[in-house]
Design a protein that fits this description.
12 strands; mainly beta; 204 residues; 2 domains; OB fold (Dihydrolipoamide Acetyltransferase, E2P); five-stranded parallel sheet; five-stranded mixed β-barrel; 3 helices
């Protein structure tokens, strides 16, 4: 069922490879390895074999390699510029510009295969798109500070993962992680015209 709540304001906020017989595989290929995702991605996404969700760090077009960050570790993956597919790239058809435009620390998902030498080669890189929010539906940090010290009735929702919420949150906020939203509608005000302020880790 689709919710009809009126959102008036918005605050812009190595596992081992799977073992398998090699008889049907070329020497430079292996079955898709078990996925490794950053912890924050595990809140919204179930791990998938042959895929990895991480933070983009940097790219070298000369060596055709990308370094990804997975929490406290780093992962280097290779790519073939002529075969790599980029989803949500800044410049469709221009692999190099699309890769260079990805900001350090931005969330990405890669599809890969792991060769017999342990090197991961990616065939697809999906860049998490930035969220577009209308200016009239945004609030500044100062606006939120004024709101929580006022007598106005409102509901402040922190949509970040529970661990991040426990580390620290805006006063009076309740935690409803995005994946759990449909199961938490009872926490929303019954009045559909009520003021609801929603924030996460950033406008992504």
């Amino acid at each position: 069922m689709r919710l009809n709540y009126s959102w008036r304001l918005y605050v812009g906020l190595t596992a081992a490879a799977l073992a398998a017989p090699w008889t049907a595989w070329a020497a430079d290929q292996a079955p898709p390895a078990k996925a490794k995702d950053v912890k924050s991605c595990a809140v919204c996404h179930a791990p998938e074999e042959g895929q990895m969700r991480a933070f983009f760090d940097n790219v070298s077009m000369k060596s055709q390699a990308i370094q990804l960050k997975l929490d406290a570790t780093a992962e280097m993956v290779k790519f073939d510029e002529d075969k790599l597919q980029i989803v949500n790239g800044s410049t469709p058809g221009d692999i190099e510009k699309s890769l260079r435009d990805v900001k350090k620390g931005h969330e990405v998902r890669v599809a890969y295969t792991e060769g017999a030498n342990g090197v991961k080669t990616i065939s697809e890189l999906s860049i998490k798109p930035n969220m577009s929010v209308a200016a009239e539906k945004k609030m500044s940090t100062e606006d939120v500070e004024k709101l929580i010290t006022s007598k106005e009735t409102y509901t402040l929702i922190d949509a970040r993962p529970p661990l991040k919420f426990q580390e620290g949150a805006i006063a009076t906020a309740i935690n409803i992680p995005f994946p759990a939203f449909q199961k938490s509608v009872d926490k929303l005000p019954q009045d559909k015209n009520a003021l609801i302020v929603y924030y996460c880790a950033g406008a992504t």
